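Budget justification aside, the reviewers requested a transparent look at the raw inputs and outputs of the sequence design task funded under Objective 1. We therefore reproduce one unedited record. The lines immediately below are the structure tokens for a 170-residue chain.
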């Protein structure tokens, strides 16, 4: 019998039977944590996303993706304007509240921009966007937005790796 080294890789082909393994493999990529906000007839709606990425400097474009099966999906699919908030390490509790409740901003301080989008303060960065494209991508939709206004400050980021929150120091 051969012993497998603890650092031996797990190799598999993604399919319906390996979705947990695939999710775990995706979790090996450390990411920042964002909260996306949109206005709606039901009040401000928010969702946590770690799929955020810059796309272009000229024009200023960013993307993020949302799961079609998410109960909040219709709000984000319909939104022409939204804001992406890059969370600071001290905003972990806010992240957890948003993850549990689409209406978490009802219990949090926020203000509205000129487009009616709810804005959260004290984030490391905020990107106020106008949606310019939405692309089908399997069970998700990739939303591309043109950044109209940006705000940033210094601080440590909230990070996510292997299902756990953390941070890094600048």
């Amino acid at each position: 019998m051969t012993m497998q080294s603890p650092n031996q890789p797990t190799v598999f082909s993604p399919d319906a039977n390996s979705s947990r393994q695939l999710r775990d493999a995706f979790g090996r990529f450390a990411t920042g944590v964002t909260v996306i906000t949109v206005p709606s007839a039901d009040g401000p709606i928010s969702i946590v996303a770690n799929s955020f990425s810059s796309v272009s400097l000229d024009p200023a474009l960013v993307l993020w993706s949302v799961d079609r099966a998410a109960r909040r999906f219709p709000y984000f699919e319909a939104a022409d304007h939204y804001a992406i908030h890059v969370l600071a390490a001290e905003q972990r509790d806010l992240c957890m509240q948003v993850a549990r409740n689409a209406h978490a901003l009802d219990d949090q301080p926020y203000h509205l921009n000129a487009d009616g989008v709810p804005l959260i303060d004290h984030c490391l960065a905020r990107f106020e966007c106008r949606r310019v494209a939405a692309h089908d991508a399997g069970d998700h939709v990739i939303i591309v937005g043109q950044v109209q206004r940006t705000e940033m400050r210094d601080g440590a980021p909230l990070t996510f790796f292997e299902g756990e929150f953390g941070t890094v120091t600048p």
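Residues 92-100 form the longest helix (9 residues). The chain has a mean pLDDT of 91. Computational costs for records of this kind are itemized in the attached budget.
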